[in-house]
Every structure is written in C-alpha cells, then in structure tokens.
Amino acid sequence: MPRYPIEQTRNIGIIAHIDAGKTTVSERVLFYTGISHKIGEVHEGDTVMDWMAQERERGITITAAATTCFWTPRKGREGEGREFWINIIDTPGHIDFTAEVQRSLRVLDGAVVVFDGVAGVEAQSETVWRQADGYKVPRVCFINKLDRMGANFEKGLESILQKLTKSAVAVQIPIGQEENFSGIIDLITQKAYKFEGDRGENVVETDIPPELREKAGEWRYKMLEQVAAEDHGLLGKFLEGKEITVEEIRQVLRKAVLQYKLVPVFCGSALKNKGVQLVLDAVCDYLPSPTDLPPTEGIDPKTNEKITRNPDDTEPFAALVFKIASDPFVGSLAYFRVYSGKLAKGSYVFNPLTGSGKEKERIGRILRMHANTRKEIDEVFSGDIAATVGLKKTGTGHTLCDETNQIIFEKPVFPEPVISIRIEPKTKADQEKLINALKKLTDEDPTFRVKEDQETGETIMSGMGELHLDILVDRMKREFSVEANVGKPQVAYKETICAAVEQEGKYIRQSGGRGQYGHVWIKIKPKERGTGFEFVNAIKGGAIPGEYIPAVEKGVKEAMAKGVLAGYPMVDMEITLYDGSFHEVDSSEMAFKIAGSMALQDGSKKAKPILLEPIMKIEATCPEEFFGDVLGDLNRRRGIIEETEERGNLKVIKCTSPLSEMFGYATSLRSLTQGRGTFTMEFGRYEKVPESITQEIVEGKRR
Ligand code: GDP
Questions:
Q1: Residues 458, 452: contact at Cβ < 8 Å?
Q2: Which of 243, 250, 287, 338 sees the fewest Cβ atoms within 10 Å?
Q3: Rounded-to-integer distance, Cα 686 and Cα 164, Å
Q4: Which conformational region is residue 674 in: left (phi greater than 0), alpha (psi within -120 to 50 degrees), or beta?
Q5: CB-based contact 450:442 (threshold 8 Å)
Q6: Count of beta carbons in the 10 Å neighbourhood of residue 464
Q7: Ligand 1 touching residue 20 (CB < 6 A)
C-alpha cells in the first residue's frame, strides 16, 4: 500500500467530562466516516444504505486505543475532494485515570473537546484542559446537547471563556435551542446547515433564515474581529470594511489554532444527529497534521543530550508506545506512534530502556484498528499510529527505535498511587491466575502498582482512587476469572522529615577471620514537596573508595522505603554522603550498604519525621435543597471549602479533603441527595497529617 499523504493525516482525541457525550460523538464520527469511506468505494458494490443497516444492527463501538477512519471534507476547501486519514486516540473518561489521559495527550496532535450544552464547563473538562495546555495540544470545542431542556449555547461559550480560555471564538451559532434546535449557522461560510435522513447523514446547505440574519451578522462581526486580530493583512481589510473570503478566514484561523492563539467553538447535538460532520470538517481544516508541529524532543541515551526527530520517513525509526492493552484475540497489543522513519513488519527494533544491545524486539505483525475491523498492514510511516503484538519487554511509555540511532522520548510523568487494598486469592488455582492478571494489568497501567507486604506476605494493589481499584478488581474477575477476597481501601501515606541533621552510620564487626567494615557520615535534609529523592556524593580525598558509594546509596534507599514512623516510604529528602572511612580488608559493599541504611534510619528519627497524606480535590454538585447537608458532610470529612457556585439550577461545591476521609463518599452523597448529587475527585497534593491523627496511625489504630 502506498504511503498516505502526511498532510492529510490527523491524530486526534475526543475529550470530555463524563456524560458530556464523548461516546455518542465518537460513535457518530465512526458512523459518518464509515459512510464517507463507503461512498468513496461504491465500486465495491455495497450501497450506503445496506451498509448503514448492518451498522445499525451491530452498533459501532470504540474499544481500541486508536481507531483509524477516513473523511472527505465538504466542498469549497483547498484541495477539494481529498480524503483525510483520522486516527482517533481514545482518552479515558474518568478522572481516576489521569495517567492514561496524560499518556494519550502525549501522542495526539489535536483534540475535540466536548461540552454539555446545559452544564457548560465541568470539573473534569477543566482538569483535562489544563493538561492539554501542558502538552500544547491545539483544540476545537464542541458544545453538545443543544437539544436538551436548559441548553444554552451562549452560556456554554461564556463558561469556556471564563473558565478555560479567553481565546475561544464562536464560528457557529445554533438555529433554535432545546426542543426547537433544528440546525446550525456557519459564521464563516454564512450558510445554514440542516441534517436530514435517518441519522442526519445528509447535510443540506441553505441560506441563513431571514429572521436570524441580523443575529448571525453580529456574531460574524465578533468572530471576524477575533480572527483578524491574529493577522496583520486581514486586520487591515477588516478595519477598512473590505470583503473577506472564506479561504482567508480559514487560513488565518488555522494558523492561530496551531499556535494555540484561538480555539474555534462549534455546536450541535450528537444524539439528534446534528453538527458532527461539520466538526469533522473542522478537524481537517484547523487541527494539525504531524508536519505542522515542532520536531519531537527526546534524549540520546548515550550522551543524555537533547535531540529531536522529524516526521520524515527517511529519518531513522523512532516511536513511542503509548498503550499496552490485552486483546481477547491476539493477546498483548502495543499501540505506538511513529515520530520518525518507518517500520516494516518482520523487522527488529531496539528498546533503549530495557535493551542491553543484544536483545531486540521483533515486529511480527502490524495492525491498524478500524471501528469494527482490524487490518494487517505491511508498513507504518512517520506520523502514523498502529499496533503490534508479541513485544516481550516493552511497556507503556517506552521508546522503540533504530539501534544505531537511539532516542528516548520523554517518559510521561505519572502521579504516585494514593490508595491501596489487600487482595487474596480464594483458592490455589486463583493464585496463579492472580499473578498473571496483576502482571498484565500493571503492564497496561503505570498508575497501578502491586507489591508484597514484607511482614504478612499479602499482595497489595495501589492505584489512583477507589473507583480505579474497583474497576481493576472487576476486570480481574471478568477478564481473567480470578476469584479473590479484597480488603478495605487504605490510604497510601508517606513519610518525610522537617529538619536537617548529620548522622554517622557504622557497621563494624571485627572479631576473628574476615570482618565487616562500613563507616559513613551523611547529611539528611528535607526537600520541597513532590521533588523526590536525591543522593549527593560529596566524598573527597577517597575517604570512601568510589566502588562502595553506590552501595551506600542503595542502603539509604532501602531504609527510606521502610520509613521510620509507621512503615510508609519516605520521600522528598536530600542525602549527602560527605565522610566516612574504610578498611583495606574488611570493607565490602554489603557493609557499606548496612552502614548507609543505619545512618538513614537513625538520622531520620532525629530529623522531626512526619506523616504525609494525599489531599484530594473534590467537586460535588447537587440540587439546592440538599446543599446544606452536602456541605455539612464535607465539613465533617475535614473538607476545606474553596468555592461554591450555581450551575444552572444546581449548586456546586469545590473543596479539598484528605483521602482518608473520603472513603465511601459516593454512597454517602447518593443517600444525602436522593441519588441526585454527583462528584468528581482527583489527587491534589501530599500534606502533613495532623498531630493527633499521626499518633493514631503510628499506634496502629487507624491502619
Ligand atoms: P460520555 O460519558 O461523555 O461518553 O457520554 P455519552 O455519549 O455516554 O452520553 C451521556 C448521555 O448523554 C447519554 O445518555 C447520551 O444519550 C446523552 N447524550 C449524548 N449526546 C447528547 C445530545 O446531543 N443530546 C442529548 N439530549 N443527549 C445526549
């Protein structure tokens, strides 16, 4: 198969708050792109209607981490009639999976952000929006559900402007609203669009209805003002009142979107089949192709220097694996995005994070996922996304590259898990299945960790929230048929210190035969929250030979993992090894490791150790009449209220509260509000546990 033109490739995500309509929009996208593609292939003999009937029976689902579809934008565009190749990268729906959201944001080039036309900007849209800012993802917005009672395009737009970005610009307005919502006015083409046929598949272009001309004119003026401000030439024309062409607007708007200066806002109702095709046009018109973006940065593993790669098939191959998924048909499926070069099936690639130089990963098959089918392909090119099977050592976030031209793309940073549960297989047979399931699930999800409790030998799973772990336990049952007993969720506390100390560590045993001799002096110093662990070697004049220094670091790390207060891992500390002594015969790595570990433990106990707990950010929503009860309940949970606001006829409470107080909140909120309250919760930061509670935890009363 010949290479697809890269300028006609789009790697996009559809992102939204839960319930805003992401699934419905995605389903429509796959449906319309399916039709568009079939129309292009009428020679195959199947008519559009036949195909639609089949689709309706089967229903389209997005289950793949990346789905490829094809779209030929409406007439009147540059390069008219060209087909675009759109890879839709799945972004997970729940906030507990922020790591997955980040991972997908890393590989997509642009995004469609979907909003509920009644609720406007909701908590999670805000979080994901900020993350997309972090990864510099150009965006278009889609205000959905305009058919719903209470829907209001202007209010939706206003909330985007207020909460997310001043750069939002309406390029459409709805014709009618709520039950009268019947179509869309495009402010750029100055035409009205209706969506006819069973599923709105026929887009009919007409003139703007006379009664809406004035309103459309005012909106168009605002739009032109914003777009023209981004281009000197266009601004001149605008100020002189000259005619501005559709093509001019599109060009300037495209440039501004790619530079994160403007975010065009579209509208419609996915459920009522209105507007989605115009959003697909917008994806082609305004979102970047892989060549529109700056070169991708990575690190040369040999020199640790920054290097870049271009989406060019002639450059050496480099790709990022962004998701490992277990697939019922082929086993473990690794999705990757090619940043440079190309890859043919049957070839070998190198993984600089796991490879020793001798082992390479063989690319047995390359798969492309479509809505309902998967296709084997022979080759994948720069800028494209595909999946492969049978990789042995490669995990999420790893780079695959050419061995002679190595690169490591920045590994996404994943938040630490904040919650743990104990899990115990019901039978011996389950034991093995459990091990297998845990391995597969941790491979897939970097925010999911598993460890063994050193004292009890039990297995402990940690993740990002109660729901996250619930879903994983449920998947273990359903996908891996593991029967297990699951304990109560526990907070993943951490320990740290508040003061700096200097401490000696001596491990000397010299009584006959070969002895042990390790002797160190270390400085222990608190570091800023969230900055982790740092080990500094300040040994001068060979007080300790270089070969023993890594052993000291290892001992320090092992001691930190055990903690000194209540057995939780210590974080945010700088350890400087600055003095010590050694013995020609008796010194060994083991002795220095023990000395390091002893110094850390003894020192930390004097350095005012404290416990840290995860503080969550919560946004709870409920009808007015329950507001008092919900607020009171949050107060009892050590909640600190930051803001309350009205959203439609609902009250919204934003607060922070320790995770330990939030267990079972879903049930509690449900019963307080007769099932009408909702909430989102995400990890905020680690903070000091109050004195009295620390005492209880240390004494084991709260564990
Ligand atoms: P997701 O959670 O973001 O994937 O949202 P879904 O697509 O599952 O939609 C959530 C609910 O909103 C479902 O009951 C949909 O039928 C409904 N929904 C989605 N789009 C629209 C729309 O345009 N209008 C109306 N009235 N309901 C919609």
A1: yes
A2: 243
A3: 26
A4: left
A5: yes
A6: 27
A7: yes
Query: Is the C-beta atom of 145 inside 6 A of ligand 1?
Result: yes
For residue 157, which amino acid is it?
A: L
Q: What are 671's two structure tokens?
A: 């019963």
User: For 303-323, what is each residue's pLDDT tens digit?
Assistant: 888 999 999 999 999 999 988
Q: Provide the residue type at 368 as one letter.
A: R
What ligand 1 atom has the least distance to the C-alpha of 274? 23
Report residue 482 as tokens: 């593991």
Q: Is 274 in the pocket of ligand 1 (CB under 6 A)?
A: no
Distance 20 CA to ligand 1 centre (A): 6
C-beta of residue 174 within 8 angstroms of C-beta of residue 282: no
Q: List the residue whose alpha carbon is closest to atom 15 of ligand 1.
A: 21
**For the CA of 270, the nearest atom of ligand 1:** 23
17 lines ligand 1 (CB under 6 A): no
Do residues 16 and 22 touch, judged by C-beta distance below 8 A?
yes
Is any ligand 1 atom within 6 A of the Cβ of residue 74?
no
For residues 246-278, one letter each, b for 16 or more C-beta atoms within 10 angstroms of the residue's C-beta and e for the rest, the string is eebbbbbbbbbbbeebbbbbbbbbbebbbbbbb
At 63 the three-state DSSP class reads coil
21 lines ligand 1 (CB under 6 A): yes
Render pLDDT for 389-426 as a digit per residue (tens, 0 to 9): 988 888 888 899 999 999 998 655 666 788 899 999 99
The closest alpha carbon to 391, from 339, 480, 331, belongs to 331
Q: How many angstroms separate the Cα of 596 from the Cα of each of 277, 298, 582?
A: 64, 35, 13
From the CA of 272, give the closest atom in ligand 1: 23
Using CA atoms, how far residue 395 sits from 352, 355, 399, 439, 513, in Å, is 12, 12, 9, 11, 47
pTM across the whole model: 0.70
The amino acid occupying position 58 is R
188 within 8 A of 249, measured Cβ to Cβ: yes
Helix (H) or strand (E) run with residue 115 in it: strand 110-116
